[in-house]
Amino acid sequence: MESAIPLHLETTRTRHKRVPDDYQPPYPSFVARYKPAVNRVVMAYFGLQYSGAAPPGAMQALKDLAGLFAGEGGPSHWDRASYADQAGYDNVVTVAYWDDVTRFDAWFAPAREAWTGRVREGVGTFVEVLRPVVARHETLFSSLDRPEGVAVIADGMSGEVQEHAYWGGMRDRIPLSQTDAMAPGGSPELIRDGARLRVKAHDNLCLIRSGQDWSDTEASERKLYLDDVEPVLREGMDFLRDEGLAIGCYANRYMNVIAADGSASEKSYGQSWWKSLAALERWAESHPTHVRIFGAAMKYLSTLGPSAKLRLYHEVTVAAADEQFFEYLNCHAKTGMLAAVETVTA
Amino acid sequence: MESAIPLHLETTRTRHKRVPDDYQPPYPSFVARYKPAVNRVVMAYFGLQYSGAAPPGAMQALKDLAGLFAGEGGPSHWDRASYADQAGYDNVVTVAYWDDVTRFDAWFAPAREAWTGRVREGVGTFVEVLRPVVARHETLFSSLDRPEGVAVIADGMSGEVQEHAYWGGMRDRIPLSQTDAMAPGGSPELIRDGARLRVKAHDNLCLIRSGQDWSDTEASERKLYLDDVEPVLREGMDFLRDEGLAIGCYANRYMNVIAADGSASEKSYGQSWWKSLAALERWAESHPTHVRIFGAAMKYLSTLGPSAKLRLYHEVTVAAADEQFFEYLNCHAKTGMLAAVETVTA
């Protein structure tokens, strides 16, 4: 048993973790481990949006993006997913990860101009970037051998960690929680730059990407996931998308992962922006929609036990104000962090 | 909005509460307020046990107890409940409350001799007493105007309190949590004193009494409680009774309250002894049996909203080693805290 907090980020606590030192989680979980030399990671969400049939510019934009990724300084890993949003638009979101912020910065300046710097007919584009110090970030995996998201660029996986399977584990896995309550500071603001809209959020904005992979499940387990768990998960994701703002969820996307060959996969993830880690904690712990998700997952896992083939993971970041970048071009007003600000000109 | 921790027990924190200062609970709850002069309360569980038809000595014992209660120094309030235990015995438990430990001590010495100091044919008796400083104790009520248990002897009820409706609220309501993790110290030990068996437990043993009152419910709400909530609650109570030891629950009783006139009431409560507050927290937050209880209760309350007539309350104490007393006479080996120790002589 090891701590989710890597040794080199352990510090003298001014805040206690939520469980006693002899706490034993009831089942194993693992976290991504970066090389100690990695002090920041970058996660960049490149979104593309259109209504109805895909305009020619949409496919071209994705090709252009792939070209940028393949160029000098491109990401160590990227994946792609799609979803239909609440305004009826199709969205394709490509998430790219770096473990070297200098490399990212050099790459990003021209890439940003190519992505949100030119209008494409019938296509909206956006980019949402966090570049947290690793002390503001945590991951959690239900099993080894298949990293997802930011964990793909990590050095490897931990052994079994202690800080999971209790409410508050998410916070306790973030190294900064040893000394900082990570309270939010301020409100999101809109910045107009011609047709480009930027959102300046605030200190301690929180991002979660929380995924599931049912590609290894068979027969009865697959049926149990698709019939009993997925619909409850979808209902919770829809709630956050449509009614999340009142409880501190600025935006939520429930994404279907697209395989490398462009086909549909048996993986999905929810990705959401939150006013604070505390707001995310409150929803997860006590909102009826997540209590139902948790109940369905508990029933599923207690029915199947260690034989369950469903894979679950998440990554959570609480970003400082200067670790964030949000830019939208030609997107509808409920896209991503635009939903958190008033974009209509009086 | 006020803190559950009374002003005169507020102290400089070395430990943080689990929610930010601007946390707003989603529905109102209240706590019992004692007069500031009250520095300890006493809760004494007087149990009586028999198998099959009630022996003549059982009714006589209850009459004797009522006589003791009515005498000089008797409790400010008492109530009575019954349950059939896992060994097939009927148990009648009378809980009595004092807010003056000196008065209790004077009263208890002869009362104890009368209760667990003489053998009654076919009848076991036990007494389980906590006498915590109020800083080691908390209560919670879903509504005003009908105090239960220890709250009956309080000065009154608070206004709406902040520290509830999140996991960790129970701990945050206990004033000692401001500075103390309340970790358990040691293991329960059996002390033989002739036929009397005493259990010396350990520092920071935890007691919860958690009750429900459906007497005001009507028609569809009553049906919802009895059909959808109560069976799930009973399943969780049975789990704690039969399999609780492995997760730190020494004993659990799911009691039916007996009205003052001796008839059945529409009130029940679970009462359990725990190795630590942390063990109780872990069960409540993540064990499938309580997750189902919580899910059923959430569904019930979100269906009914503020019109719900079901009343819920609890009281929780984390007792210091010298605030406890457990004594059993002629009881079976799984009675109360006896279940936590080996009583068979080699």
What do these coordinates show?
Two copies of one chain form a homodimer. Chain A has 346 residues and is α+β, with helices and mostly antiparallel strands. In chain A, 25% of the residues lie in helices and 28% in strands. In chain A, the strands form two sheets. Chain A has a twelve-stranded antiparallel sheet with strand order 6-13-10-12-11-3-4-2-5-14-9-8. A two-stranded antiparallel ribbon of chain A has the order 1-7. In chain A, α1 (56-70) packs antiparallel against α2 and α5 packs across α6. The longest helix of chain A has 25 residues, at 219-243. Chain A is globular and about 60 Å long.
In short:
Chain A has 346 residues and is α+β, with helices and mostly antiparallel strands.
Task: List the SSEs and their pairings.
The structure is a homodimer of 346-residue chains.
Chain A: E1 32-33, E2 42-50, H1 56-70, E3 77-84, E4 90-98, H2 101-116, E5 124-130, E6 137-141, E7 156-157, H3 169-173, E8 189-193, E9 196-200, E10 205-213, H4 219-243, E11 249-258, E12 264-274, H5 277-286, H6 288-304, E13 311-319, E14 324-329
Antiparallel strand pairs in A: 1-7, 2-4, 2-5, 3-4, 3-11, 5-14, 6-13, 8-9, 9-14, 10-12, 10-13, 11-12
Helix pairs in contact in A: 1-2, 4-6, 5-6
Family (chains A, B): Belongs to the heme-containing dehydratase family.
GO molecular function (chains A, B): lyase activity; metal ion binding
Keywords (chains A, B): Heme, Iron, Lyase, Metal-binding
